[in-house]
């Protein structure tokens, strides 16, 4: 009776077992991160924050068109039916630079309301308030 390759090379059992375990853990963690970041990107609060930033003329000037969001969104998102809370940091980039959208919102009766929505542009000391009716430059006059 002929022995299998693994029986003939018993010294490979532990390294192959470790490699298999590492492969399974990598696939699991990658799938978990993909699920989490896809959940963030699919949320209404995320979409609204990106849309408001993309419509703002100052953000478009400083970051550049088109505005793209990074894959790695950080923060918290909790939704329970028609209520919820969000506290997100969304890295964005464009042709002219990079920045981070800081969005804090709550959801009541199915409607998201932002309590804080700012864009911090790399290289700029002041953040851009996306909730104000006027831009920071117009308020200074």
Q: Nutshell version of this structure?
A:
The protein has helices spanning 5-8, 13-42, 44-55, 57-63, 136-140; strands at residues 68-69, 74-80, 83-93, 98-108, 111-121, 128-129. The protein is of the alpha+beta class and 141 residues long.
* Span between termini: 92 Å
Secondary-structure element order, as H and E? HHHHEEEEEEH
Which consecutive residue ranges, at least 5 long each, have pLDDT under 50?
134-141
Q: Give the assembly state of these chains.
A: single chain
Structural overview:
The chain is α+β, with helices and mostly antiparallel strands and about 140 residues long. It has two domains: about 5-35; about 45-140, Mitochondrial import inner membrane translocase subunit Tim21 (Nuclear Transport Factor 2, Chain: A, Roll). The chain is about 40% helix and about 30% strand. The chain has five helices and six strands. Strands 1, 2, 3, 4, 5 and 6 form a six-stranded antiparallel sheet that branches. Strand 4 and strand 5 form a beta hairpin. The radius of gyration is 23 Å and the shape is elongated. Mean pLDDT is about 85; it is low at about 135-140.
């Amino acid at each position: 009776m002929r022995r299998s390759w693994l029986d003939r090379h018993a010294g490979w059992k532990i390294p192959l077992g470790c490699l298999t375990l590492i492969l399974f853990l990598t696939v699991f963690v990658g799938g978990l991160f993909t699920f989490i970041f896809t959940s963030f990107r699919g949320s209404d609060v995320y979409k609204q924050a990106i849309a408001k930033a993309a419509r703002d003329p100052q953000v478009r000037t400083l970051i550049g068109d088109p505005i793209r969001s990074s894959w790695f969104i950080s923060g918290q998102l909790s939704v329970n039916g028609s209520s919820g809370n969000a506290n997100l940091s969304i890295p964005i980039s464009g042709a002219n630079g990079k920045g981070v959208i800081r969005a804090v919102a709550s959801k009541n009766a199915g409607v998201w309301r932002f309590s804080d929505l700012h864009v911090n542009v790399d290289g700029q000391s002041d953040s851009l308030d996306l909730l104000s009716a006027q831009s920071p430059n117009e308020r200074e006059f």
